[in-house]
Amino acid sequence: MRKNPDVAAVKRDYYDVLGVARDADADTIKRAFHALARDWHPDVAAAPDAESRFRELAEAYAVLSKREARLLYDRYGYRGRGNHGFDEALWEARPAVAARGENIQVEIELRSFEAEEGTRRVVSYEAAARCKACTGRGSVGLPDPECEHCDGTGRKRTVSSLDIANLLQIELCPACIPEPCSQCGGEGTVSAERRIRLLVPPGVQDGAQLRVGGDGNDAGAGSIPGDLLVRVKVLPPPRDPRLVRYAALVLLVVAIATLALYVSR
Fold first, then answer.
1. How far apart are the first and last CA of the chain?
2. DSSP one-letter string for the chain
3. pLDDT at residue number 1
4. Which residues are within 8 A (CB) of 86 and not within 5 positions of it... i.e. 6 or more apart?
5. Is the torsion defined by CA of 235, 240, 243, 249 positive or negative?
6. Which pLDDT tens digits describe the chain residue by residue (265 residues)?
7. Do 165 and 159 contact (CB within 8 A), yes or no?
8. Are the beta carbons of 228 and 216 closer than 8 angstroms?
9. Pairwise CA distance, residues 241 & 112, whole Å
């Protein structure tokens, strides 16, 4: 299992990456991407960070060039760990433009006074994290920004209609990405251990569920991470210590009386 440090990656704003204003239209975004892509393509640029810069450009363009994906990005930004408040209704109503990682469910136990007063608790769990070797794309090769099969994302999305729901399948684009990443086997994610410090609000009830947005499983490049769902189990309060002492005193008196009766015989 690959260990993942408990440090969130810092991403630049996609508008800054392309050097456009937040109200830029689709043509402006496209022109900016093509101009920068020509300068930073690894086959042309000599800079050591050319490949990572080109990946960054392709990722920014993949989001900002699509209306629905841009809407989500404008509202929530990059969903780093601990980003709260994801609107479930908007997610359910959106077109299938981005995959979402699965939620993770864990359970914690609290003593009664912790539930009443609130507390902090370190939660450890395993989750699917975006592969750093391929930045979640599942391949070592760079996608073709002009590829008509994947729109420059390197991942082909297929929606299958079932009786009860639509099934979204994601795979490497066969047209422009021939070689899968050796670190993640083409999945775009690796198993990693996470530790977060959870803030438990005061007055939480037994059986309550706390949601931490963006701390669930990742589903690779262009996806939105799932959430961490924490189920709370409140332990029953301890017995009144005064009753315990009283019962102990009664037992002691009975024992002394029994001993005295035995000696008197």
1. 73
2. -----S-PPP---HHHHHT--TT--HHHHHHHHHHHHHHH-TTT--STTHHHHHHHHHHHHHHHTSHHHHHHHHHH-S--TT-----HHHHHHS-S-S-BPPPEEEEEEE-HHHHHH-EEEEEEEEEEEE-TTTTTSSBSSPPPTT-TTTTTSSEEEEEEE-SSSEEEEEEE-TTT--SB-TTTTTSSEEEEEEEEEEEEPTTPPTT-EEEETT-S---STT-B---EEEEEEEPPPPPPHHHHHHHHHHHHHHHHHHHHHHHH-
3. 38
4. 76, 79, 213, 214, 224, 227
5. positive
6. 344 433 334 467 889 999 999 889 988 998 998 888 888 877 677 788 877 888 888 888 888 888 877 877 777 665 433 333 434 433 343 444 457 789 999 999 999 888 898 899 999 999 999 888 887 877 776 666 667 777 666 666 666 554 544 555 666 676 666 577 888 888 889 999 999 999 898 899 999 999 888 899 998 877 788 899 999 999 988 766 566 566 667 777 777 777 777 666 6
7. no
8. yes
9. 15
Per-position b or e across 107-134, b if 16+ CB within 10 A of its CB: ebebeeebbeeebeeebeeebbbbbeeb
DSSP per-residue codes, 111-167: -HHHHHH-EEEEEEEEEEEE-TTTTTSSBSSPPPTT-TTTTTSSEEEEEEE-SSSEE
Q: How far is CA 87 from the centre of its chain?
A: 15
* pLDDT for the residue 186: 81
Q: Give the position of tokens 């332990």.
A: 235
Tokens at residue 241, please?
A: 């210590």
pLDDT at position 90, please? Answer: 37
Token look-up 């609130």 returns 118
Q: Which two tokens stand for residue 204?
A: 């939480």
Can you tell me which residue has the tokens 């810092």? 10
